[in-house]
Please model this.
Amino acid sequence: MSTLRVLFATSEAYPLAKTGGLGDVSYALPTALRQLGVDARLLLPGYPSVMQQLLLIEVHENLTLFPSVEPVRLLAGFMPGGAYPVYVIDGPKLYAREGGPYQDAAGNEWPDNAVRFAVLSKIAAMFGSHQFLFKPDILHCNDWQTGLAPAFLAYSQARQRAMSVMSVHNMAYQGVFGPELAELFGQSRTDMIRVVKLLGLPESSFSMNGLEYHGKMSFLKAGLHYSDWITTVSPTYAKDIQTEAFGYGLQGLLATRSHQLSGILNGIDIDAWNPVTDRYIVKNYSIDMLADKDENKRILRGKLGLEQAPNKPLLGMITRLTYQKGIDLLVPVIPDIIHEGVQLVLLGSGDKELENRLKQYARLLPSQISVTLGYDEQLSHQIIAASDMFLMPSLFEPCGLTQMYSMRYGTIPLVRRTGGLADTVIDATLANIQNHSATGFVFEEEDSQQLLSCIQRALKAFHRKDLWPALQSNGMTHDFSWHHSANEYVALYQRLLIKN
Ligand code: ADP
Model:
């Protein structure tokens, strides 16, 4: 059988650009696919951090894609370390700016995101319709930023084209744009049909059975409607998004496509996240040398100004500070958590109000609470290694990666039972402890008291020297690698190609 070719189109990929889990997945999944013999390549925008890290050569110049949008160049390079091809879109007016991939430094969405990601989607679809030298069998799109690609591809006149897969990493972000979009394309505010035509899509696509969403255009809906297959990043989230609570108005569409929708659990990069070799942590350790894990705790406490209290567990949290992550459940019980004899160490950035509330607590009790605002890859590894417990009280969680990193580092996750957290953390019930499957502590409801009870339960276990190491061992020996999931993706790609 000839080599399977996959173009992975994404708005971020570690280590070139990363704001969250999508960045990790966009590096690790193509790497795992390549290990299975797939010719997987990446396409992403040329943000400054991408242009700085890659040695690039030009593949195509002056791709004029939409009216009034500057022509872009398509460049090719190699992923640092991973040594596989990466295609980069060079459009200085679109992507060369200080700030993040989606927002400026103050946290405001870039006003022209629709254009920036329509360009990404369009070039992805051009790959999919075999207009460039690399002709993928599969166009694998990720989240709303590449959502228009399956629509462009479905309407392309190409005789041969890739099959498209749309992966949802988070339904909460949909890329919905109204008539203001027209102005971005240099037109006066007109109706949405005009916008759709400016994008090169037929008028008929602007309907309920297309990319229309309450009179506006939804990039994610386009992806969900026009792709040949939909995946999400965990089996439970695949069910969650078909419900009103988590479908954000698209649950009906997803239910009608449920026979073409599957949940494939994310893996983690077990080389980047390995306590035995991790270069970011001060003292490497293995399951046989857990005493060395404590050395990381001692050093981190010193670094962050926390009291050296051998009997107090360190509870870690690394997160985007958004509604989704359940910070609102945590904040009211922070005094109780500290009262119980737990130290809190948090790294995160996002919502300014949440940042301020958390920082206030840290100022009040600097010996027991440490809050670092910002994005810090090294500190994130150090917190995972040093903490005894790791908290994820998410209101919803498509998959979640940090709970898996934690288990690999012998750090016990405390999570709400939702989405991928439900699929990866096994609650320390008596039965699960006895059959050696327990890896963490799980609570059910969106309720601060339940969160506190969960911490109290974990605290009891922490003080039981016969139990805690067993929980650590169960997590540390579990296979969280991409190997299994990458095989599932290959099987899916092959099924799609056979059907075609
Ligand atoms: P999400 O994609 O919803 O943000 P995930 O758990 O899937 O959540 O992935 C989050 C990723 O981003 C993890 O690799 C985590 O370590 C990292 N991360 C989140 N916030 C920070 C931060 N402030 N500093 C460093 N890494 C962070």
In short: The pocket of adenosine-5'-diphosphate is lined by residues 20-21, 24, 318-320, 347-349, 375-377, 380, 399-402 (CB under 6 Å). The chain has a mean pLDDT of 95. The radius of gyration is 23 Å. The first strand starts at residue 5 and ends at 9.
